[in-house]
Inverse folding.
């Protein structure tokens, strides 16, 4: 049988489970809002659809690829083709209904996102309206306005726009005129006024020293404005503050409204984010400028307060994210949940639009909420009966056909197992024969004597080298005891050897002794003996490697004779 045999249909049913799980996960991640009833319903539907699809397609796959082909040929037209057509039509219908619901939900989401973005822009533009009113009043006053008049103008605008925390104006003064400027301000009533850089300046000192002018905070409203961790002092040179320096220089140069980079209003806990808005007036005429060269009205705005519900527009959605597109900005997330700036823009899930605000390039993103996702209830009601019917019919068909083929599959399986067993035994026998041949070749040709000895110290087998060493044939040595070929004086040295090896006291025993040759002569040898163990840990036999020392001893005697002759000749 081939790989698509119906006898294995249960494995294909099990394969439907991971297939359905993968489909459910895909649906959960792509289309659903995690953690909601809609997401659970969508995932359950996709699990059932993909799992049943795998099961229903099994007979079609069997009819197309099962072996032998002749047996399945009649099933291709009567079963495979109709079932495949039914499944295809069913899936097309379900997908059409599902896509229609998704498109409706996507269109609804994009419409709501456009409306939300329009309302956000209205909220943000209120800060520009306040700036425009203050700037217009300052221009009308020729750049010279007292604090009481400024307060009278700023107060109603700030009350109508809660997000504006502070307003005031900056004055540009030549660095060489700073002492005279300080004296003039003190003479007007602010006796503690002093021009200074920010205490923790984030602009290099050499850059500040190169500036010809300073731009200082001349006035702020309300005067007591303060928040944890940050205090804007009168007389602070805003060119020494990194987030305001670029905006200030651009505003003074272009005489237009410029927004600063966002910054944390609370430098201790970083809970609120704000930004500044500046709109410098044209430089003072040479004849009328005095010590002040240019005036720059400014606002400090809290993004969170600016986006609070308004009687005219109502509450804004909670899934809005406002991002500064400048990668060098110290704070890029102006509003929204932490991490929303990292969510990729995906059609149908995150709607984004660029927004230019007072010289800054921002992006407003709206994430799709759970309520805007299309409901899968209609799809489920449409697909559930069809899935149940297809699933039931397929299981019945698989069960019936598998029983017909089960006997043949078992016979084939047993035959294959027997063939494999026979082949395995033949391979083992061949391997054993080859191993024995290699062993015999090594045993017979090794230059040292090799002896296998049983527990009674009888010779089980000896190689030709050992036999020629003592003048015996190998067959003659078999059955002889090691004691019979050992001189009596050497028996004492080797009597304890078998016991020491059997008790694991020594892994290898090395002894120099003599053996008795056939002619009665003594053959000096070195014997290295080790024990071969059975699988259960009992000793099987001893293996002794015997090295003939006669040649070595003759060489040593000849060396001594030469040394003696040399000594005698010298005497």
């Amino acid at each position: 049988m081939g790989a698509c045999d119906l006898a294995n249909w249960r494995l294909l049913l099990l394969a439907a489970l991971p297939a359905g799980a993968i489909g459910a996960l895909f649906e959960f991640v792509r289309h659903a809002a995690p953690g909601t009833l809609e997401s659970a319903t969508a995932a359950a539907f996709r699990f059932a659809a993909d799992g049943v699809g795998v099961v229903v397609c099994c007979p079609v796959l069997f009819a197309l690829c099962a072996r032998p082909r002749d047996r399945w040929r009649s099933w291709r037209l009567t079963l495979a083709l109709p079932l495949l057509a039914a499944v295809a039509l069913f899936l097309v219908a379900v997908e059409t209904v599902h896509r229609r619901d998704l498109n409706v939900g996507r269109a609804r989401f994009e419409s709501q996102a456009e409306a939300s973005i329009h309302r956000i822009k209205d909220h943000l533009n209120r800060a520009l309206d306040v700036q425009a009113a203050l700037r217009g009043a300052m221009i009308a006053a020729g750049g010279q306005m007292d604090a009481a008049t400024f307060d009278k103008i700023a107060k109603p605008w700030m009350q109508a726009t809660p997000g504006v925390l502070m307003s005031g104006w900056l004055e540009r003064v030549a660095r060489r005129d700073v002492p005279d400027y300080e004296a003039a301000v003190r003479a007007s009533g602010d006796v503690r006024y002093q021009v200074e850089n920010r205490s923790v300046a984030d602009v290099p000192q050499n850059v500040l020293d190169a500036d010809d002018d300073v731009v200082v905070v001349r006035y702020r409203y309300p005067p007591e404005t303060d928040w944890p961790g940050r205090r804007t002092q009168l007389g602070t040179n805003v060119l020494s503050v990194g987030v305001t320096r670029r905006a200030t220089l651009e505003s003074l140069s272009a005489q237009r409204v410029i927004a600063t980079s966002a910054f944390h209003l609370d430098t201790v806990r970083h809970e609120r984010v704000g930004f500044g808005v500046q709109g410098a007036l044209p430089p003072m005429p040479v004849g009328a400028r005095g010590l002040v060269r240019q005036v720059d009205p400014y606002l400090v705005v809290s993004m969170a307060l600016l986006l609070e519900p308004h009687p005219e527009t109502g509450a804004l959605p909670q899934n809005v994210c406002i991002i500064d597109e400048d990668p060098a900005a110290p704070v890029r997330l102006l509003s929204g949940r932490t991490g929303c700036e990292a969510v990729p823009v995906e059609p149908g899930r995150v709607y984004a639009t660029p927004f230019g605000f007072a010289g800054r390039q921002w992006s407003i993103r709206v994430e799709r909420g759970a309520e805007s996702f299309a409901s899968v209830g209609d799809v489920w009601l449409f697909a559930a009966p069809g899935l149940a019917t297809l699933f039931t019919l397929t299981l019945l068909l698989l069960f019936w056909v598998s029983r017909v083929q089960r006997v043949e599959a078992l016979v084939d399986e047993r035959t294959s197992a027997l063939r494999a067993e026979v082949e395995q035994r033949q391979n083992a026998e061949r391997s054993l024969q080859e191993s024995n041949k290699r062993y015999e070749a090594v045993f017979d040709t090794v230059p040292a004597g090799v002896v296998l000895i049983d527990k009674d110290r009888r010779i089980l087998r000896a190689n030709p080298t050992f036999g020629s060493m003592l003048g015996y044939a190998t067959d003659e040595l078999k059955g002889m005891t090691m004691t019979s070929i050992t001189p009596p004086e050497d028996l004492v040295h080797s009597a304890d050897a078998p016991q020491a090896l059997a008790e694991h006291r020594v892994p290898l025993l090395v002894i120099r002794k003599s053996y008795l040759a056939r002619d009665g002569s003594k053959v000096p040898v070195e014997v290295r003996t080790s024990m071969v163990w059975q699988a259960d840990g009992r000793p099987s036999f001893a293996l002794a490697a015997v090295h003939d020392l006669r040649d070595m001893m003759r060489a040593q005697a000849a060396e001594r004779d030469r040394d003696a002759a040399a000594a005698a000749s010298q005497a």
User: Anything to note?
Assistant: Residues 1-7 have pLDDT under 50 and may be disordered. Residues 72 and 196 are 94 Å apart (CA to CA).
